[in-house]
């Protein structure tokens, strides 16, 4: 039995194991922090291969968060997983509209997903918004449509829905939408992955070069 | 672009794809529902290989939930992921004590994880309890210890912490603890997996044989 039980020591040791098992593969920081934390959250080294970043996306995310950007999630799970104390210490706020009564009713009326409607509600937020999508391809698709329609322009999109229907296509759409993105390409992702990408950026404490 | 956007149709089609890609591998129900839903939540077919069940664990879980058993999680993410409307319709309730002030203070004082202390708090609940552990090996270890010490006897343990330190060992401990279990062996798991195993049992609508 391993003898490590102190919370910070556990995390430190975990990151050392991940770095070691990556066999020398590395990324410039702060991107490496995101890659490592996705593997930490899933124990799945596929994230070393599937993560796609638009140019300097993680640097941008860190800067946005440090200057008080808000985060919108598609699920309560992703919302729950985000370190809201840290986020709020920078002045930002996390939102998830999926359980709002108006969203539920409109989705029923239109026979579409609540995720779609919740993104339309999020489009009305003021200030820079990071979208963290961990479940619903329909959320990601609606974001891409609203960008194309000129309805909104997200500061950054974490596009990490998981699954077998519409998921791969939705990620391809968002990567072509002309906005900064962090996306695990393919079927994998999840609310845990969307949240952990946010947290990796919130926890990163290094310098960020001014672009 | 796939043409399926209606929520129930998306889930139905996803399950068909998973079944098809399992290439004829199958499990008796309701176990198959759990296997399928773990893959659905992660897009990771490793769950077809790593899931371990004590004898008739899923049947037991379904029966427990239908008769109003409570669920205790180690994280707010797992708590958030559980369909609480469905759970409460059977008379059960979901609990997570990780953010309770008394838990936070005691963990600080003892320099152990909040997960450990939250399990000790959960041990005081009355009635049958399903533990759904998706993050903290220390939670699972404390459960195994309390079983051995005769402090409590969980009705079922979903042991799905994820990660690199203490995780594999904690799962081995719980599988030898003499209580019913559902465990993804190895490093993989997560709050999403713990929640989805609960939901698979909550959503299962077939008959359960009386043992």
Question: Explain this structure to me?
Answer:
The structure is a homodimer of 211-residue chains. By secondary structure, the first copy, chain A, is α/β, with parallel strands linked by helices. Helices cover 50% and strands 11% of the residues of chain A. Chain A has eleven helices and six strands. Chain A has helices at residues 7-21, 31-42, 47-50, 57-66, 76-81, 84-89, 101-110, 114-122, 137-148, 167-175, 191-203; strands at 51-53, 70-73, 94-96, 129-133, 156-159, 181-184. Chain A has a six-stranded mixed beta sheet with strand order 1-6-5-4-2-3, sandwiched between helices. In chain A, helix 10 links the parallel strand 5 and strand 6 (181-184). In chain A, helix 9 runs parallel beside helix 10. Chain A starts with 6 loop residues before the first helix and ends in an 8-residue tail after the last helix. Chain A binds chain B through residues 1-2, 4-7, 10, 13-14, 17-18, 40-44, 46, 75-77, 79-81, 111-113, 138, 162-167, 169, 186-192, 195, and chain B through 1-2, 4-7, 10, 13-14, 17-18, 40-44, 46, 75-77, 79-81, 111-113, 138, 162-167, 169, 186-192, 195.
């Amino acid at each position: 039995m391993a003898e490590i039980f102190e919370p910070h020591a556990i995390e430190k040791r975990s990151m050392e194991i991940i770095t070691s098992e990556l066999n020398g593969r590395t990324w410039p920081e702060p991107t490496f922090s995101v890659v490592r934390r996705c593997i930490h959250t899933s124990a799945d080294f596929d994230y070393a291969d599937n993560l796609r970043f638009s140019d300097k996306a993680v640097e941008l995310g860190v800067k946005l968060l440090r200057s008080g950007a808000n985060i919108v999630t598609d699920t309560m799970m992703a919302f729950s997983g985000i370190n809201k104390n840290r986020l709020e210490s920078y002045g930002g706020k996390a939102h998830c509209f999926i359980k709002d009564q108006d969203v539920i009713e409109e989705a029923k009326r239109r026979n579409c997903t609540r995720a779609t409607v919740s993104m339309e509600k999020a489009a009305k937020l003021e200030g820079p918004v990071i979208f963290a999508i961990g479940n619903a391809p329909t959320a990601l698709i609606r974001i891409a449509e609203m960008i194309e329609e000129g309805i909104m322009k997200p500061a950054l999109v974490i596009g990490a829905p998981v699954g077998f229907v519409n998921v791969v296509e939705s990620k391809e759409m968002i990567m072509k939408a002309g906005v900064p993105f962090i996306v695990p390409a393919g079927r994998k992702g999840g609310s845990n992955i969307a949240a952990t990408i946010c947290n990796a950026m919130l926890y990163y404490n290094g310098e960020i070069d001014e672009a």
